[in-house]
Amino acid sequence: MRYLPFLISLALTVYALFSCIQTRTEDVPYLPKLVWLVLIVFVPFAGPIVWLLLSRNARRPEPPTRRAPSASRPVAPDDDPDFLATLERYRDPRMGGSAPPPPADPEPEDKTPKDPPKKKPSKDPGKQAPTESDDGKN
Fold first, then answer.
1. Coil, helix or strand for 70?
2. Residue 108: exposed, middle, or buried by beta-carbon count in 10 A (0-12, 13-18, 19+)?
């Protein structure tokens, strides 16, 4: 029982010493780091307690500051055209979207656009082929 104050002081000193050593130099409050180390080691009870109280208050995060959006990159994923292009493959064709792209071939093909053959319109409007309606009736 008579060694209890010594053990408490030793434990507090060791804890505060490791806390001070692991703290970044720019985060040390009020005094240089070396001065804090000397105070923690050579001033029993008071040195470690003052370090722990002041370092706890110094570690409180500052409120976040809002930065202006950068013109070089999008702010949100829905503003990023590259991200939106990757979503096309997940679109459900039944919901009115385009069909999913075909699987990528290992060999690159000629990327020139291929136009479907166009029908030449008839010169006589009465002789044009009838068009089918999409009403489901034949």
1. coil
2. exposed
CB 13 within 8 A of CB 47: yes
The Cβ of residue 51 has, within 10 Å, a number of other Cβ atoms equal to 26
Full DSSP string of 36-61: HHHHHHHSTTHHHHHHHHHHHHHTSP
Q: What's the CA dihedral at 113, 117, 120, 126 to 10 degrees?
A: -120
Q: What tens-digit pLDDT sequence spans the chain (138 residues)?
A: 888 989 999 999 999 999 999 988 888 888 899 999 999 999 988 999 999 998 887 765 666 666 665 566 666 767 777 777 787 777 767 776 555 555 666 665 556 666 666 666 656 555 555 565 666 665
Instruction: Supply the pTM of this predicted model.
Output: 0.43
Tokens describing residue 36: 């804090």
What distances in angstroms separate CA 107 from CA 99, 103, 113, one per listed residue? 22, 12, 17
88 Cβ contact partners less than 8 Å away, ≥ 6 residues apart? 97, 98, 100, 101
